[in-house]
Amino acid sequence: MSKKLGRGVALVGAGMSKFGAFPDKSGRDLFVEAFQDMRQSVDKGFDPADIETIYIGNFSSDLFEGQSHTAPIMADVVGLTPRPATRIEDACASGGAALRQGILAIASGLYDIALVGGVEKMTNLPTAEVTDTLAAAADILYEIPAGFTFPGFYAAIASAYMHKYGLKPEQLMNVAIKNHENGALNPNAQFGVTIPAWMEGRKVAAQKKGRPVPTWQNEMEFLHDDSANPMIAWPLRLFDCSPITDGATAVLLVAEEIAPRFTDHPLHIIGSGQASDVALHDRDDLTSLSAARRAAQEAYAMAGVTAEDIRLAEVHDCFTIAEIIATEDLGFFAPGDGFKAAEDRVTARDGAKPVNTSGGLKSKGHPVGASGVAQAVEIFKQMRGEAGERQVARDLPLGLTHNLGGTGGTCVVHIFERRA
Amino acid sequence: MKSKIERPFTAASFQAYLNENKLMGSHCPHCQAHFLPPRAICPHCYGDQLAWVEFSGQGKLAAFTTIYIAPSAMIAAGYGRDNPYLAGVVELEEGVKISGQILGADAAIGVPLTATFVERGEGEAKRRYLAFQIA
Questions:
Q1: pLDDT of residue A230
Q2: Contacts of B6 (CB under 8 A, 6+ apart)
Q3: B127 lies in a domain?
């Protein structure tokens, strides 16, 4: 029998800071921006004093900012002490896991109104130290000594996928091209520019500096150029990887029965699933993430819907290969068909199954602990017809979020429904 | 029956064996299952009567990458953009998989490998690591 929430939970507000590199802003500054953006999004307004509990997704403020015990600080900067404030850490799935804790807190009947946030301030550290910090999301005793980095793990997954299904590295680039097309229409995106526009920008910059102007004729030539798109971990290049980002997010969850006090257009959270998994090397199949399959099954069963019913999804594209595998693990496409769907633009904004209309982690940015909540922000905007230039031009009654931690040691899946 | 050497099933014991050029994991006599790295509790039967077992170190490459942007520890060992290195997941002949640095040219999925033990780091940071040589 499928698991059920104790009572209905609705999403009635969703906001985010701009994502990017902000030397003059701390994590808490970004959270204040996200909180204010969320307040603006609540149709009928609300009194922040009515918030009863706070969950904050954050991966490693300890190493990124030298600040542990982050949740009470986030509560404080928006005036919410002495309410309980708890940090949730599941690596890159911290945001999704925090969202789930907020849902469970309301479903339990203990609270009616919960604030869920996500925050990560990553750009204080040099790249090598960011790489080391992210590597701590893997098994530091048995995986990291092999020399693995996070791009390295997903590159190894890609190698197994290429071997099994005949994917060619250049086909991964379809994911990056699509997500930058979407991100170019998202004013909060860190790299909100299409890849062709990026390429032209590089030409203009070279000309200005009196350097030889590159002769790329199209985006694929640009993406094949080692100087423009250097190898990070074969077969993954720079444009296969999500960036290092500062950013914060905030959403407001309420008990379904009081949702009309906040808005006439809430999103009902009808499915929630979460699962864990062993280290990458301990898995039978290196081309699929079983935590994602399990979390999706749990969420679909709770919601009483199937993969076919989902009209819109934000998935965890920390690397291009991760989006391809996510679309298979969620059941949108058969194993081995995900990269073909990306190539055929099925997952484009005007395709049958739009994926990562926000620009995804790739273009919007990936402030680790904030990303899972940011997915819910995009679903909130799209399903309510508030996504501006990147609005999907179809009715979107059902949306889904898929948030991975590490190499799939954690996956959290949520399903959202709009009834009005 | 106790194993001859009564080392606990910890990362420190695994490392102590690596320092002796041995690839050691654990074995559940009830489930006949091998575990590498060693587990103290069998995840199938939850039994705790496991014994140390030595792995042959023979296997084949299951997944791999060539890393150009290295973590600090590998940069300190001389690797990076101009000297990339391979990391991979290796399927051992005993049926379990493990991560390791991959040494040698012409990596491809399925190539046979042999466990080897490499030293990285200087002074107190010097440590022996599990690696696999392409035959």
A1: 97
A2: none
A3: yes
Residues of chain A with pLDDT under 50: none
Q: Do B48 and B75 have their domain in common?
A: no
Closest CA to A104 of A7, A3, A2, A1: A7
pLDDT at B4: 54
A411 noted as active-site residue: no
CA distances from B124 to A82, B21, B127 (A): 47, 19, 8
Domain presence at residue B108: yes
We report the CATH number of the domain holding residue B86 as 2.40.50
Q: Report chain B residues whose CB lies below 8 A from the CB of A283.
A: 97
Same domain as B111, residue B93: yes
Would you say residue B45 lies in a domain?
yes
Do B112 and B126 reside in the same domain of the chain?
yes
- What is the span of the domain harbouring residue B25? 11-54
For B62, name the nearest residue in chain A, comparing CA atoms only. Answer: A160
Angstrom distance (rounded) from CA A414 to CA A295: 9
Is B115 found in the same domain as B65? Answer: yes
Q: Is B83 on the interface with A (CB under 8 A)?
A: no
Partner residue opposite B65 with nearest CB, options A131, A142, A152: A152
Do A155 and B65 lie within an 8 Å CB cutoff?
yes
**Confidence band, pLDDT 50/70/90 cuts, at residue B1:** very low
Closest CA to A411 of A323, A292, A320: A292
Separation between Cα atoms, residue A131 and residue A110, nearest integer Å: 40
| A241 noted as active-site residue | no
For residue B78, being part of any structural domain is answered with: yes
Shared-domain flag, residues B64 and B78? yes
Q: Which residues of A touch B98 (CB under 8 A)?
A: 142, 281
Among all residues of chain A, which has the CA nearest to that of B103?
Answer: A146
Residues of chain B positioned with their CB less than 8 A from the CB of A148? 67, 87, 99
Q: Can you give the pLDDT at residue A201? A: 95
Pairwise CB contact (< 8 Å): A147 & B97? no
